[in-house]
Amino acid sequence: xxxxIQSSPILARVVPFGVFALLxxxxxxxxxxxxxxxxxxxxxxxxxxxxLVRPYVxxxxxxxxxxxxxxxxFVFIVWVGLDGHFPRLAERSGSFNPGAAYGAGSFLALxxxxxxxxxxxLVVPPLEEVFYRSFIYRYIQKSDFLKIPLGRFHWVSFLVTxxxxxxxxxxxxxxIICAFAYQGLVCRKDRLGDAIWxxxxxxxxxxxxxxxxxxxxxx
Length: 219
What we know:
This protein is an all-alpha fold and 219 residues long. It is 68% helix and 0% strand. It has nine helices and no strands. The protein has helices at 2-7, 9-26, 34-53, 66-81, 98-102, 107-139, 155-167, 172-189, 193-213.
């Protein structure tokens, strides 16, 4: 199975994201506090799968640039700034708040907060950018997607990928704007690494904001 994933350009880009997404659906379904343990589990599995497919997904290389920093900070501001001004796609059944579950300042609370920030900053960005900005965006244009340059702008792919990404989040409007910003960065730089960095910066700033302000609704 592993060799099949590594030998298939599609599976190498879809399976890590798919496994991560499936585990996300289990969060909170196996007991009141299972969302914390499952988040830690999926972060570890996601990191492991990324490591396994890394040699076969050539575009999954982090590239830091001033554009990536600007886009990352911009998306964070938009994500927080638009909250409450538009209806969410659905209301969260609960928030990811380890302090409320295990006691503020406890070892488990700090551990799961750390896991959440690390996972969202280091694991989620390459998983999602490879799946959405590299695979989905190009596959819409052509099934033999590797022949499509990362930097080629395509209106239909741009809009469809952005909408798909957006509706995958409670904050749908922020998600769509976020997708447009990251995809635009890919098109501008003709590589994926800047978008990975921008995504990481956004998620890290959001994590710091959540903890500092107690705004766990964003988690």
